[in-house]
Fold this protein.
Amino acid sequence: MTSTASRPETDAVPDTWLPEPPELLAPWHTPARAALQEQARRFAMDEVLPVANELDPQKGEIPQRILERLGELGYFGITIPAEDGGLGLGVFEYCMVSEELARAWMSVASILARSQGMGTAVADPQRRADLLRRSAGGSWIGAVALSEPDAGSDLANVQTRAVREGDEWVVTGHKRWCGNAKAADFIQVLVRVADPEPGESRSRGLRNLLLVKERGSFPAGLSGYPIDKVGYHGFLTWDLTFDGVRIPADDLIVEAGGDGDSGAGFREAQKFLNTARVHTAARAVGLARAAVEDSVLYLQEREQFGHPIGDFQALRFALADMAAQVEQARAFYRQVAHLLDEGLPCEREAAMVKLQATEMAVRVTNQAMQQHGGNGYTTERQVERHWRDARLTTIFEGTSEIQKLIISNKMLPRSPLS
Ligand SMILES: Cc1cc2nc3c(=O)[nH]c(=O)nc-3n(C[C@H](O)[C@H](O)[C@H](O)COP(=O)(O)OP(=O)(O)OC[C@H]3O[C@@H](n4cnc5c(N)ncnc54)[C@H](O)[C@@H]3O)c2cc1C
């Protein structure tokens, strides 16, 4: 496009990036995946983006009609088997759709992570099947309460207690950062049911309980307040106090193939975090892509020194660097999603892609804001939302430092002196 071409509207979407032309499709990018990607992109740009532009500045929540559309499209059950009502696809497709949704509004991509069969691993097979079907349809959307005021990076330090009284657990403690808690149908709560013996791992005695609740309210004994965040609007993130909350004994998440005790909750949380890290990488790619696409438009729209600023080589080269970084992170998250779908061990790679993609998103959204000049530092432009949301991605689902810890621990034994 030449500098004299008619300028697109600021909110128009450039079609210079995606969809990828069929003749350039990589072998893994099958026609079925390309069609799913195109469907998700259209939904995100036509239906989610306008809502994000309206509601994010008001710190609004994802409206019911968007949740219903996600249900109609089957996106709550992308990874749920078809016989259980899902789309029967893999982490690859889940991440691909999430990238598209995050390009419009990260929280909509995030709400998908509160379904996909989460909170369905109960012991009774019939109940599990019923919950899976509800999860796929969007009537079993949850929240995850792992973190506590003194257990963030150090999850093994969870102090919330569950004490068995007859056929119930009684839960007491303080959870922090629980996204979607009040709007959820259930909260998966990481609790301590026993103390480790001296010399045992601190993660022993941790289990995941399933607190079934009504949407829009808290059950007896549970209270909380929404934390005022910098970004990531679309759903509220709660500080929760459990004061003798009663949970039926059967509402316990069971670990596939586990011994049913001894740190099962911690291992479940780790497995959940591997998929969550790749999903976070995909969301980061969506945010960075949004920033690049916004920059492509702004560089043509804004004139200084008698030229569109996109004529200046410094900005053109910065744009090229930004786009190349996004493509690199996308290729990496798709590779790790493939490993997960193949059931291959990939804890190190999941940590690597989370680290690399989220740090990239911070850099790229920051650079896009710079290219928008003063307009970038206003709420009149979308680039500030991408920047605010990208900033979170290096913190939640395990900070960048914790990813580096995981990667280096897999590569380098510590000496007995450390
Ligand atoms: C908006 C938002 C939404 C969230 N949603 C949820 C949710 O839905 N459910 C949930 O359970 N949690 C949620 N979290 C919690 C999130 O996962 C934690 O914030 C994150 O794991 C970091 O923990 P922390 O905040 O306690 O930081 P800390 O663990 O206190 O870390 C502080 C700093 O110390 C560094 N650090 C800590 N330990 C080490 C170490 N060993 N080596 C080097 N550096 C270290 C960290 O990298 C960081 O820079 C959310 C958080 C936010 C901000």
Notes: The chain is about 45% helix and 15% strand. The chain has a mean pLDDT of 91.
